[in-house]
Amino acid sequence: MSFKQLVRALPAAAWLPGYRRDQAAADLVAAVIVTIMLIPQSLAYAMLAGLPPEVGLYASILPLVAYALFGSSRTLAVGPVAVVSLLTATAVSRVAEPGSAEYIGAALVLAALSGALLFAMGALRLGWIANLLSHPVVSGFITASGILIAASQLKHVLGIDLQGHNLPALLGSLARQLDAINPETVMLGVAAIAFLFWVRSRLRPLLARTGLPPFAVEVITKAGPVVAVVVTTLAVAGFGLNDAGVRIVGAVPGGLPTVSLPPFSPALWLELAPAAAIISLIGFVESVSVAQTLAAKRRQRVDPNKELLGLGAANIAAAFSGGYPVTGGFSRSVVNFDAGARTPLAGVFTAIGIALTTLLLTPAFHYLPKATLAATIIVAVLSLVDIGALRRVWRYSRCDFAAMATTIVVVLAIGVETGVLAGIGVSIALFLWRTARPHVAVLGRVPGTEHFRNVERHEVITSASVLSVRVDESLYFANIRFLEDYIYDRVVTAPGVTDVVLLCSAINQIDASALEGLEALNRRLSDAGVRLHLSEVKGPVMDALERTDFLAHLTGEVFLTHFEALARLDPEATPQTAAPNPVPIDNERARR
Amino acid sequence: MSFKQLVRALPAAAWLPGYRRDQAAADLVAAVIVTIMLIPQSLAYAMLAGLPPEVGLYASILPLVAYALFGSSRTLAVGPVAVVSLLTATAVSRVAEPGSAEYIGAALVLAALSGALLFAMGALRLGWIANLLSHPVVSGFITASGILIAASQLKHVLGIDLQGHNLPALLGSLARQLDAINPETVMLGVAAIAFLFWVRSRLRPLLARTGLPPFAVEVITKAGPVVAVVVTTLAVAGFGLNDAGVRIVGAVPGGLPTVSLPPFSPALWLELAPAAAIISLIGFVESVSVAQTLAAKRRQRVDPNKELLGLGAANIAAAFSGGYPVTGGFSRSVVNFDAGARTPLAGVFTAIGIALTTLLLTPAFHYLPKATLAATIIVAVLSLVDIGALRRVWRYSRCDFAAMATTIVVVLAIGVETGVLAGIGVSIALFLWRTARPHVAVLGRVPGTEHFRNVERHEVITSASVLSVRVDESLYFANIRFLEDYIYDRVVTAPGVTDVVLLCSAINQIDASALEGLEALNRRLSDAGVRLHLSEVKGPVMDALERTDFLAHLTGEVFLTHFEALARLDPEATPQTAAPNPVPIDNERARR
Question: Three-state SS across A425-462?
Answer without folding.
Answer: HHHHHHHHHHHCCCCEEEEEECCCCCCEEECCCCCCEC
